[in-house]
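Long-time lurker, first post. I've been practising inverse folding by hand and with some scripts of my own, and I keep getting stuck on stretches where the structure tokens seem ambiguous. Below is the full token string for one chain I'm working on. Before anyone asks, I'm not after the true native sequence, just a reasonable design that respects the backbone. If someone could post their per-position residues I'd love to compare against what I wrote down in my notebook.
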């Protein structure tokens, strides 16, 4: 199993040379714009800006973006459906009303815009850069270290899943529906067992090296760009002005 799609895109993105703080400002500004501005057309504008920056200057390959968006899209669709379907007030059973559809549409727009904004940061900034930036900005060491260990364990788990799945495939474990269900159950159990074993071995290894709660790593410090920050603020101002001037 390969690495996460957004992580692959982030390491290859030309925006990696920009300061993580500048990109956090851009992503956070888009998220706030999607939350506080009227949903129409602000959410649409934020989504278009985020996707345009990812596919344009960020040079995120479209196939990686589609692969990374499948998981969040599933959660968004499930959440929207539960909002659109309500229970009848005059009896039993589910129903769909104009009000529930309107609420579902607004939630869908906010969710897509916010997710696109966060994915813009994830697709252009490797996690190691974000962790180093967070440490320099005073985020508690324990939080940064836990995030870093979780990030590293993710790759270990992906490797384990790939190995088990390849062995199951070689043994015709996914040829029928019944075999697929049995293989998926075995894969889940094996992954959880390996994850627990890896975490215990990691804990023992850190204790053996005298780990005292701080795991220092080398990181390149990239200075903030005034041009990038100015362009970000101008873009956010433009999105706000258009959204307030053209409420749908």
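-- Answer (accepted) --
I ran through it position by position. Result:
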């Amino acid at each position: 199993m390969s690495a996460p799609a957004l992580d692959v895109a982030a390491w290859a993105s030309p925006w990696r040379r920009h300061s993580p703080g500048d990109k956090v400002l851009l992503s956070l500004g888009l998220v706030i714009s999607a939350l506080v501005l009227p949903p129409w057309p602000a959410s649409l504008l934020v989504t278009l800006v985020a996707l345009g920056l990812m596919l344009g200057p960020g040079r995120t390959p479209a196939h990686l973006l589609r692969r990374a968006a499948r998981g969040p899209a599933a959660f968004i669709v499930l959440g929207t459906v539960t909002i659109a379907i309500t229970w009848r007030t005059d009896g039993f059973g589910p129903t769909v009303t104009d009000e529930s559809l309107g609420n579902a549409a607004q939630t869908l727009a906010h969710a897509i815009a916010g997710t696109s904004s966060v994915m813009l940061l994830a697709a252009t900034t490797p996690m190691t850069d974000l962790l180093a930036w967070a440490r320099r900005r005073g985020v508690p060491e324990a939080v940064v270290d836990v995030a870093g260990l979780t990030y590293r364990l993710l790759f270990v788990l992906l490797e384990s899943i790939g190995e088990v799945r390849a062995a199951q495939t070689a043994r015709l474990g996914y040829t029928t529906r019944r075999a697929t269900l049995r293989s998926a159950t075995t894969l889940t159990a094996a992954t959880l067992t390996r994850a627990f074993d890896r975490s215990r071995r990691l804990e023992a290894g850190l204790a053996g090296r005298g780990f005292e709660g701080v795991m220092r790593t080398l990181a390149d410090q990239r200075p903030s760009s005034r041009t990038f920050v100015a362009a970000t603020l101008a873009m956010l101002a433009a999105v706000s002005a258009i959204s307030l001037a053209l409420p749908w």
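A couple of notes from the structure itself: DSSP finds nine helices and two strands in the chain. The longest helix spans residues 177-208. Happy to go over any region you disagree with.
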